[in-house]
Amino acid sequence: MTQRITIDPITRLEGHGKIEIFLDEHGNVERAILQVPELRGFEQFAIGRPVEEMPRITPRICGVCPTAHHMAATKAVDAVFHVEPTPTARKLRELIYNAFFMEDHTLHFFFLGGPDFVVGPQAPAAERNILGVIGKVGVEIGGRVIRIREDVREIMNYLCGKAIHPVCGLPGGVAKGLDEEHRLKFLETAKAAVEFAEFALQIFDDVVLKNKAYVEIVVGEAYKIKTYYMGMVNGRNQVEFYDGDLRVVDPDGREFAKFKPADYLEHIAEHVEPWTYVKFPFLKKVGWKGFVEGNDSGVYRVAPLARLNAADGMQTPRAQKHYERMYATLGGKPVHNTLAFHWARLIEALQAAERMVELLEDKDITNPDIRRIPTQTPTEGVGIVEAPRGVLIHHYKTDERGLITNANLIVATIGNAAAINMSIEKAAKAFIKGGQISEGLLNMAEMAFRPYDPCHGCGTHALPGNAPLIISIRGHRGELLRQLHR
Amino acid sequence: MVSIMSNAKPKVAFYWCASCGGCEESIVDLAEDILKVVAAVDIVFWPVALDFKKKDVEAMPDKSIAVSFINGGIRMSEQEEMAHLLRRKSQIVVAHGACAHLGGIPGLANFWNKSTIFRTVYHATASTDNPKGTEPQPKTSLDGYELTLPEFWDTVHPLDDIIDVDYYLPGCAPHRDLIINAVTAILEGKLPPKGSVLAPNKSCCDDCERNDSKPDKLQIKEIKRPHEVLLDPKTCFLAQGVICMGPATRGGCGERCINGNMPCRGCMGPTDQVYDQGAKFLSAFASILDANDEKDVERLVDSIVDPAGTFYRFSLPSSILKRKKLEAVK
Question: In total, how many domains does chain B have?
């Protein structure tokens, strides 16, 4: 009998992600897909808006990662007006951006991805959340997580007006500078952030890497897909979040392409399916071949592990050590194991924190020269940053008054949209067999998408827990056979 | 009104519609205060944080939830269903954040309709590769399996277009003090009259630190866009010739944008005396334009490059305009 399993997490960004798993007559998985049932149409209503307002409009695409949209938009607006930020403005933007990365990444580990490991993949759902993590690692640590988040977000609130929907980016600079008093205060926070990121890596080490069973899950075939990887790199091919070239490596780890943000259309296209509101980006020079792995498929991955795979190393010394250790442990580059995204995420959090310290130790960051007034006629511009969830592209064209005539947005999470579908299907096939569907097995399947930190799950990112799910198993006539809540 | 203070802890629900997740983050940003809230109430529904049980909500007696906080505008069929369900089950519904209150930034989509949005997103955008002209469908078949998607509407609605709303918690995202005050008022049963906006009834300018720098008789000879001038961090934006929605906008937001040295864009909506925020700003603004003759007025007005998208940045769906006429959308 044909069955259908619906996993309806009802979590956020461009909507509620919903997983459908179809079983064949033997109760084995035939197909699994993730549907995103929401659209808001920012590309349409950008039209007619003054382009310099985009950094204040596009953050509403996502309230969890508004800083990423704010910064991609700000950089696109720089390009539209043909103006570079002053050196100090650039440092301030990088500070804001690294603070955001650090806060977002560590939050993900403790609140969302971490519980699977720290509490255990097959633990009861009620314990697989931040409270369960605190139960396992201690209340004191829970307090530390809340405090470091608040302190780092204070840097963002101070410089950006609001951490939820920043306002500071202008073409050629930023609206607000930093004084010496705040530089010193934030430097202390940055140093604490480095310690906190190291501490998070230590927990990962103690809980995951020292547990043989977990390591087996991490390196297991169920959580492995071979794809291309895309990430931003600096001039030395090191992982970069704010500004650089995009580099693509093939499934064997060889450089496939390296390009300037302005040339993204030569390399990336988006495929449309009728059953979901999101589009599926792919490598144009390879082509869309469907939801398949390998060198002949244009599917690529983005976000932490993809960035590390696409780069030659990290920018900062402590992060570099962990980078080397990760590849040594997992058998060299590239790593295709999806669960290694969690590890890569913490290594990136450490780089972000180390960069915060570097930027705040530089006294020039208090230089009041933070704006360059644009003088040229606005035309067209591309702004790309690495969002925590991957390459984020904003592209605007304007008339001579700077009013938008065309906008194109490729949002970070959808960079992984095809791969998420493939990962879920592969894990579902591995764990759901002969109609055996237990809650623990479903979580094992669900663990295939959590490493991507999908922004449809932005909300999930927030407080205790997992993507809340309803799982309906139906016969081929649609009758309800069984229902699980978790 | 039914008392919500019984022996048991009051039941509270949170839900989201067409929003970005920022309102959810605003709850998380309560940081340690969130623990006090959690201690005082029984959260029965919060898809972000707790098991999703729509069926459990359906099974609850009507009016058994003390208060539901709903954020986001309504633009999909599924959101409408959830809004009705929560209304039925709740004594109080609070429209949480600018989108539920006014329509919010996603409400700018009301300058267009479904087919123009689809044309842009799925066909015209530069990176879209769609030779077969595929568009998402409410019902499709994939390898013989039927798949459904909720219907996408032409129009974004504020929550009170769809259901009866008791209170409005304004802002994008709401300031933490407003959230704490609202929760406290509900817990203590000290609520203002139904329909109130849970924020001070005064303009953003009243609390603004730059208010003193505003000349007695404000006059604008030249309108500047924020990127065209070095923004003085102490002087009233309007006095600098930069459009700031402060005079037509409710205060209580903590003037966070202005503290970030950028002008107000109106996310708190109008004060109680004003129905239409954009119209209010326009009339206030017209009175400060320093023009000698009609031509001069025309020149100044022309230099406002996007009046609708600026004056109605957050409030188009709840304004007198509501949306661009459907037949006028090409």
Answer: 3
Quickly count: other Cβ atoms within 10 Å of residue B291's Cβ. 16
Chain B CA closest to residue A4? B145
| ipTM (interface predicted TM) | 0.95
Instruction: Kindly determine whether residue A468 and residue B52, on different chains, have CB atoms separated by under 8 Å.
Output: yes
Q: Which of residues 10-49 of B touch A (CB under 8 A)?
A: 16, 18-29, 31-32, 34, 46-49
Is B138 found in the same domain as B161?
no
- Tens-digit pLDDT profile for residues A73-90: 999 999 999 999 999 999
Pairing of strands B11-16, B65-71: parallel
**A48 in contact with B at a CB cutoff of 8 Å?**
yes
Domains of chain A and CATH, by start = 1-40+423-486 (no CATH), 84-222+337-373 (1.10.645.10), 225-336 (no CATH)
Contact at 8 Å (CB) between B269 and B277? yes
Tell me the residue range of the domain where B240 lies. 204-318
Kindly report, residue by residue over B73-127, the tens digit of the pLDDT: 999 888 899 999 999 999 999 999 999 999 999 999 999 999 999 999 999 999 9
Interface touch B256/A161, C-beta < 8 Å: yes
For residue A9, the chain B residue with the least C-alpha distance is: B52
Same-domain check for residues B306 and B233: yes
Residue ranges of E strands in chain B:
11-16, 42-45, 65-71, 74-76, 90-96, 139-142, 145-148, 152-157, 167-169
User: What whole-number distance in Å separates Cα of residue A315 and Cα of residue A317?
Assistant: 7
